[in-house]
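Quick one, tokens below:
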């Protein structure tokens, strides 16, 4: 029997007892009128009376409190089931407006009317996400930086001031504390199966959310404060997320693909059988264009599937279960790390066979700061669920299908080779990180080069008019700089990989753009990049940013000054300064191209060097900081406020002399690597 078949729960015994049994031990029937007044308001004092405290330090006694609140939660659940949708809206909807997502909470009410345990779990995940976001907005009435973790948010003095400490203690029994039910975490991290989440706890949290709205209204009236809602995060640059389909493929997750996925779910060892309803519900939601629901259901299942592989490959089966309050969960962060907490090498990438297929994709979509961080943003309520883009859901679902295939039996060969599945596997096998700092640097370089390439299209005055300006007749200084750049660039191009095109003209913008494209296409395994690499990349990205700003400033100034020239709106000194700018462009373009080639080559080589042997990168950083300082000064001199073009020429001359000296001493990394 496969391990995925034999696992009956991912909840440890104490956690399973707390969630599934403790709140059912008291058989009393609780009268809803005790906590609900005649005008429909929550009687918070009656609710908080069920919170028990330890005699030793007066902290919350979570065990006794869960047991005491069990009948109250059941009473609320029965009460909600007795209401029609219209009755619920009339009585409670206005108290939910403070969350800024009333519709989500109304949907949770609908869920409570059905018997689908999967839908209840989904509703609870969405409820906790939106509630956390709303509580964060309330926190900002009193504080500045909203805590990232829900447990810290609920324990904050700021929320206690608004709602009262006793009320916050009630919330912490259900969510946010590892000593309580901790419903948010056990669901979002994939520990709870659908049948292990009692619907009455979802009902109680819906009830408490309305009660919080009542308390907040009183507070806002007393303090005359206005509750402002933070804007939702919007996924930008969706083309960067477009892994499936691949660059040259037209893959569509149509019903045929999803039907095959449903067959794979039933047979794959990646899926715990107790979690099967979540997988089916996720695929169904995608078919119904409920993209946020699909991803919310799927992400915890990817985590529990990888946790199964992680605990098996690293021989720590106990880590498959929920951690107790005294330990940590085994979550994505640990599973994607290079080493375990005992410093041994993590074996999960070995099991995955192609680490890039899973690890780099997961790092991109979940962890990297410049990536979409889908799980964080969804679970913390930062995304408008109704506007969740199909493009993102498409990637998560397609990636999940590749994992289902990877961990399916050989007798599923026909499905793996199906014409709609095989292209997905091909895309996954050649995946390269999109949001690692190295990947972002490559993107920056190419965007900067495109900007510089536009210089050749800038409008300009006739050459004979340039020559009439005193001091520009010979133009020997610019020619000398261009010659110096050519010499250094030619030396640099000796270290271009053989698979990349060379050039007899190292400052030809067309050839440079082609070379940079090929260098950026060079595959670099970004997984577990050494610290020296990341420190170098930080500086290289700053250099690239400065270069791009110089280019944009030159374009803006050239276009504006040309218009003023044509309209004869320039004074004599301004005309001379404009012509000096045109003169400077002749050497600035090759300078910036040279720097882009340099930093692109460096990121390829620094990674290779650090993988093989350590080197004195502190000395190397000094060289990079020299270039960074030059580009920062260049930004200042070429700004519309300064327009110091003669100084730009002198600055460039001094910088090139320093760069040539460093190169001659062979202190650059490319020399250290050979």
């Amino acid at each position: 029997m496969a391990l995925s078949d034999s696992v009956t729960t991912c909840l440890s015994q104490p956690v399973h007892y707390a969630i599934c049994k403790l709140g059912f031990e008291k058989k009393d029937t609780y009268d809803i009128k005790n906590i609900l007044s005649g005008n429909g308001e929550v009687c918070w004092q009656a609710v908080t009376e069920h919170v028990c405290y330890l005699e030793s330090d007066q902290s919350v006694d979570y065990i006794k409190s869960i047991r005491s609140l069990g009948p109250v939660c059941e009473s609320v659940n029965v009460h909600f089931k007795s209401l029609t949708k219209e009755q619920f809206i009339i009585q409670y909807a206005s108290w939910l407006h403070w969350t800024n997502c009333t519709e989500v909470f109304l949907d949770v009410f609908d869920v409570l009317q059905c018997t689908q345990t999967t839908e209840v779990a989904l509703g609870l995940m969405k409820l906790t996400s939106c509630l956390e976001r709303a509580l964060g907005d309330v926190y900002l009435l009193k504080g500045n930086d909203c805590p990232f973790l829900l447990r810290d948010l609920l324990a904050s003095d700021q929320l206690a001031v608004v709602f009262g400490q006793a009320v916050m203690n009630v919330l912490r029994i259900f969510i946010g504390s590892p000593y309580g039910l901790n419903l948010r975490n056990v669901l979002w991290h994939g520990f709870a199966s659908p049948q292990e989440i009692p619907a009455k706890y979802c009902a109680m949290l819906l009830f408490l959310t309305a009660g919080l709205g009542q308390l907040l209204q009183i507070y806002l009236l007393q303090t005359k404060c206005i509750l402002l809602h933070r804007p939702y995060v919007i996924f930008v640059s969706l083309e960067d997320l477009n892994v499936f389909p691949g660059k040259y493929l037209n893959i569509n997750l149509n019903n045929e693909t999803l039907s095959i996925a449903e067959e794979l779910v039933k047979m794959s060892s990646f899926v715990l059988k107790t979690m099967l309803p979540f997988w089916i519900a996720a695929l169904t939601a995608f078919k119904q264009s409920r993209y946020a629901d699909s991803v919310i259901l799927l992400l915890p299942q990817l985590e529990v599937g990888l946790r199964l592989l992680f605990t098996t490959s690293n021989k720590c089966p106990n880590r498959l279960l929920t951690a107790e309050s005294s330990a940590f969960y085994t979550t994505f962060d640990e599973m994607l790390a290079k080493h375990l907490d005992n410093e041994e090498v993590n074996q999960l990438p070995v099991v995955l066979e192609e680490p890039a297929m899973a690890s780099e994709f997961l790092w991109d979509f979940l962890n990297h700061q410049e990536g979409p961080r889908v799980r964080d943003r969804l679970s913390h309520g930062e995304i408008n669920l109704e506007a969740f883009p199909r493009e993102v859901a498409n990637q998560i679902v397609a990636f999940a299908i590749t994992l289902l295939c990877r961990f399916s039996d050989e007798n599923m060969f026909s499905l793996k080779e199906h014409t709609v599945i095989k292209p997905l596997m091909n895309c996954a096998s050649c995946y390269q990180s999109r949001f690692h700092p190295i990947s972002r640097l490559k993107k920056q370089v190419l965007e900067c080069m495109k900007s510089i390439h536009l210089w050749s299209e800038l409008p300009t005055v006739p050459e004979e008019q340039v020559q009439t300006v005193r001091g520009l007749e010979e133009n020997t200084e610019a020619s000398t700089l261009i010659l110096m750049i050519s010499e250094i660039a030619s030396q640099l191009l000796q270290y271009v990989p053989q698979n990349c095109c060379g050039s007899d003209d190292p400052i030809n913008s067309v050839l440079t753009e082609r070379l940079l494209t090929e260098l950026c296409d060079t595959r670099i395994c970004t997984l577990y990049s050494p610290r020296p690499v990341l420190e170098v990349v930080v500086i290289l990205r700053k250099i690239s940013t400065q270069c791009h700003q110089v280019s944009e400033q030159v374009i803006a100034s050239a276009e504006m000054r040309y218009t003023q020239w044509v309209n004869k709106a320039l004074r004599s000194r301004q005309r001379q300064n404009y012509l000096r700018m045109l003169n400077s462009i002749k050497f600035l373009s090759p300078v910036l191209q040279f720097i882009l080639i340099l930093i692109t080559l460096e990121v390829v080589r620094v990674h290779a060097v650090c993988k093989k042997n350590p080197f004195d990168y502190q000395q190397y950083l000094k060289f990079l900081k020299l270039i960074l300082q030059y580009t920062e000064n260049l930004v200042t001199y070429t700004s519309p406020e300064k327009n110091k073009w003669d100084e730009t020429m002198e600055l460039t001359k001094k910088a090139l002399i320093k760069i040539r000296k460093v190169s001659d001493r062979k202190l650059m990394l490319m020399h250290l690597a050979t």
